[in-house]
Structure formats: structure tokens, C-alpha cells
Specification:
Number of domains: 1
Structural class: alpha/beta
Number of strands: 8
CATH architecture: Alpha-Beta Barrel
Strand order of the largest sheet: 1-2-3-4-5-6-7-8
Radius of gyration: 18 Å
CATH class: Alpha Beta
Helix content: 40-55%
Distance between the termini: 46 Å
CATH superfamily: Aldolase class I
Number of helices: 12
Strand content: 5-15%
Largest sheet: 8 strands, parallel, barrel
């Protein structure tokens, strides 16, 4: 199978979109579509559905495919939907990849298998099966802290040489030297996207050309301003925005990052903070910490950022 390597939806600023739930913890597709449109209107370049932040492991495969379909219908053509593909079984991941493709996905974020931490040969065969399942461009997700699998640059090169549709890597190891290592070994053959919010400045400086953002769910315009500053020539502005944003960006690296990011949205008047078990709502002490961070961000908003919108969006 081949793919047009010019089609790389992970370049630029993407958002790992949260999944809104209704009162019975059903997926709220109307709210999901509205949230996707809101993000697109505020500068998000692509939306990744059903990933870790989207509580993909708490959704059924049918729910994940339906979420892709809802977003694909809601978003303008210039904003592609990328489906995160993760499952316990390889066959299930292959079916999910095919279902997401049929539902309008324009790229796949390929995760290692859930739970089983295989050796390099087993993980390679899992990736191969998912990548071969469709003609869509694919991005590997390297997050050893979450999945116990570290996809080293040499293994990425092997897969890229076999599968030209593998055009991206979401690098979430937390070691920005990995960005440099991937670029040194593969050059322009793959795009590296920063996968942890509090590594974006360092990651871009090391050669990343994309950012899969989490706090962008609540603060898309601020995230857009930060990414543009990181990729531009005004380093002073980039550092000023980054220092201001870091206390919130660090929420993306906590074990309760889903609840925390949803809570930031609630503090800013966006959505609700419902999550599916085994996740539970934040304690009042945890909520108060989020309120404090948002209040500090409002108080200290730097001149390098555009003025906050009059409609209440942003801080």
C-alpha cells in the first residue's frame, strides 16, 4: 500500500480531543461535534479522536468509530480527523483501523497493544498489521511511560522502510533528545510531533514539526499562539508564553490528566468533567488546585499573548 507523503495531518498544531459524556456516561455526540467545531474555529489544525486523553481505553470499538464519524461530519475539510488505534488484541486494532477509515478518518495514530508488553518482534508485528490494514497515513505513538513499550529510532526506521505510509511519530517519552535522534536517523521521512504539553518548546527546538496538544481542549488560542511562537523567530516571545503556560501544561503529564484537563475546561465555561470509571471525578481539593491555576493564569496573562476574547474563551 502507498500513501501520498505530502498528506501529513500531524504537522502543526493538533489536539487530542476529550470525549464528552452525558448523564449516564454515554458518549455525547452532539457535544463532541460542537467541541470539534469550536476547536477548528480557533486554529486547531487536526483532531485526534479516541486516544489516551479521549479515554479510548474506556470506549468500545463501536463507540470509537462512531466518534470519528461524528467529528468527520462536523469538521470542515481543512481539519482532518485522525483516529487513535489501540486495543488489547491485534485483530481488534485492525478492525478499529478499518472502521475508522470507513467513518471518515484521514490518518491513524497507531498505539502499542494495551496491557501486553511484548518484545520488539511482537510489537513490530502488531504495528505492521495495523499499518497494512488501510491506505491511510499513519503515525506511531511512542509513550513508554503509559504503555511500557519504547519504540526506538532504529525500530521506527525499519517500519518506515517497509511502510511508506508511516509518516509520523508522536514522541511522548519526555526525552527531547529522542526528537533529535529520530531526525538524525530519518531526516524528513517522518514528521515528529511533541506528545507531552510541557515539552513543546524544547521539542520544536530539537526539530519537531507538530504538537499533539492536550490543554488545547480548553485553551486552543493560547496553544496556537505558543506553537506559532515556538516555530517562529521570536524566541523571547516563545519563552514568555511558555513560562506563563507551563503550570497548566504540566497537568497533561499527571496520572489524572484526563480529569484535570476537563476540569480546566469547566473552569473556563466549556463542557463538563464527567469521566468513565475506573476514572473518578476529582476531589474537591484537586478541583481547588485547578481553580487556583486558572486564576493565576488569568492574573498573569502575558503581553505576548493576544488579548483574551470578549466571549469568555481563554483565560
Amino acid at each position: 500500500m502507498t500513501a501520498d507523503r505530502a498528506e501529513r495531518p500531524w504537522r502543526g498544531l493538533s489536539v487530542a480531543i476529550t470525549t464528552p459524556f452525558g448523564p449516564e456516561l454515554e458518549v455525547d455526540h452532539e457535544a463532541l461535534a460542537a467541541h470539534g467545531r469550536w476547536l477548528a474555529q480557533r486554529g486547531i489544525g487536526a483532531v485526534i479522536a479516541g486516544g489516551s486523553l479521549g479515554e479510548g481505553s474506556s470506549l468500545t470499538s463501536a463507540e470509537r468509530v462512531a466518534a470519528v464519524a461524528s467529528l468527520a461530519r462536523a469538521l470542515p475539510g481543512a481539519v482532518p480527523v485522525v483516529a487513535a488505534v489501540g486495543a488489547l488484541r491485534t485483530a481488534e486494532a485492525v478492525d478499529l483501523a478499518r472502521g475508522a477509515t470507513a467513518s471518515g478518518a484521514r490518518g491513524l495514530l497507531v498505539l502499542p497493544p494495551y496491557v501486553y508488553r511484548g518484545d520488539s518482534r511482537e510489537i513490530r508485528e502488531h504495528f505492521r498489521a495495523v499499518i497494512r490494514a488501510t491506505d491511510l497515513p499513519c503515525m506511531l505513538y511512542n509513550n513508554p511511560g503509559a504503555y511500557g513499550v519504547d519504540v526506538e529510532p532504529e525500530r521506527i526506521l525499519e517500519l518506515v522502510e517497509e511502510h511508506p505510509q508511516l509518516t509520523g511519530v508522536k514522541e511522548s517519552s519526555g526525552d527531547v533528545r529522542r526528537v533529535s535522534a529520530i531526525r538524525a536517523l530519518l531526516g524528513e521521512r517522518v514528521d515528529v510531533a511533541v506528545g507531552l504539553d510541557d515539552c513543546v518548546l524544547e521539542g520544536v527546538a530539537s526539530g519537531a514539526v507538530g504538537w499533539v496538544a492536550g490543554l488545547a481542549n480548553a485553551l486552543p488560542e493560547e496553544s496556537r499562539a505558543l506553537f506559532d511562537a515556538c516555530t517562529g523567530s521570536d524566541r523571547r516571545r516563545a519563552h514568555e508564553i511558555y513560562r506563563w503556560f507551563l503550570p497548566l501544561l504540566r497537568l497533561d503529564t499527571r496520572p489524572k490528566f484526563v480529569q484535570l484537563i476537563k476540569a480546566v475546561g469547566v473552569e473556563l465555561g466549556r463542557g463538563n468533567d464527567r469521566v468513565r470509571p475506573p476514572r473518578l471525578p476529582l476531589t474537591e481539593e484537586e478541583r481547588e488546585r485547578v481553580r487556583s491555576l486558572v486564576a493565576e493564569a488569568r492574573r498573569d496573562r502575558p503581553p505576548a499573548l493576544p488579548a483574551a476574547r470578549s466571549d469568555g474563551a481563554g483565560v
